[in-house]
Amino acid sequence: MDRDTIVIVSGLPRSGTSLMMSMLEAGGLGVLTDGIRSPDEDNPKGYYEFERVRQIERDQAWLEDAKGNAVKMIAELLKHLPPEYNYKVVFMRRNLEEILASQRQMLLRRGEPTDKVSNEDMARMFRNHLERVEAWIAERPNVDVAYVSYNDLVADPTEQARRVNQFMGGTLEVEKMVNAIDASLYRQRR
């Protein structure tokens, strides 16, 4: 992989982005994180977040530090990636019922309401959002993308780790990537 390329791990919330970040790190890729958000019951191995990502509309200086590394970014923010950089996006996909169940469980643990939006409405909003994001990605010549299913990753970790490694240029340690997966954390199976 070109050391000037920025790796972005993205997807919907609760789609496996933290898992992919931990796999890339275990495989030998540097990750840009700040450790502000601590591991908890919902993400016992950590969130792998970098707070400045949320300010990408106003603050893009951190992108220089992201070159040759992976950084996690919610799908909604991808549209703010400036065109002067090249990106490899590992976009996590997951069964929508599982995402909704995982989000609901996280909200319950935090004592937050879970009935603001119905599952059907939320699933429809997520599907529409994904269509827009994927269309945006397809139009960007500076964005290379690999779509990775969380469900396939847990079912066949070696094959999916090989696939991601190939996408990254074949320099990662696949066995270490696979060892980063803790299948016991796949708690919202559908």
Summarize, please.
It contains seven helices and five strands. It is α/β, with parallel strands linked by helices and 190 residues long.
Order of helices and strands: EHEHEEHHEHHH
**Largest beta sheet, briefly?**
5 strands, parallel
User: In the CATH classification, which architecture applies?
Assistant: 3-Layer(aba) Sandwich
Gross morphology is: globular
CATH homologous superfamily descriptor: P-loop containing nucleotide triphosphate hydrolases
Overall mean confidence score, pLDDT: 89
Trace the largest sheet across and list its strands: 2-3-1-4-5
In terms of per-residue confidence, which ranges show pLDDT below 50 for 5 or more consecutive residues?
Answer: none
The beta-strand count equals 5
Helix content: 25-40%
The count of domains is 1
CATH level-1 class: Alpha Beta
Element layout with pairings:
Elements: E1 6-11, H1 17-27, E2 30-31, H2 63-66, E3 69-72, E4 87-93, H3 96-110, H4 119-138, E5 143-149, H5 150-155, H6 157-167, H7 174-179
Describe it.
The protein is of the alpha/beta class and 190 residues long. The chain has a single domain (6-180), classed as P-loop containing nucleotide triphosphate hydrolases (Rossmann fold), CATH 3.40.50.300. 38% of the residues lie in helices and 14% in strands. It contains 7 helices and 5 strands; from the N terminus they run βαβαββααβααα. The protein has helices spanning 17-27, 63-66, 96-110, 119-138, 150-155, 157-167, 174-179; strands at residues 6-11, 30-31, 69-72, 87-93, 143-149.
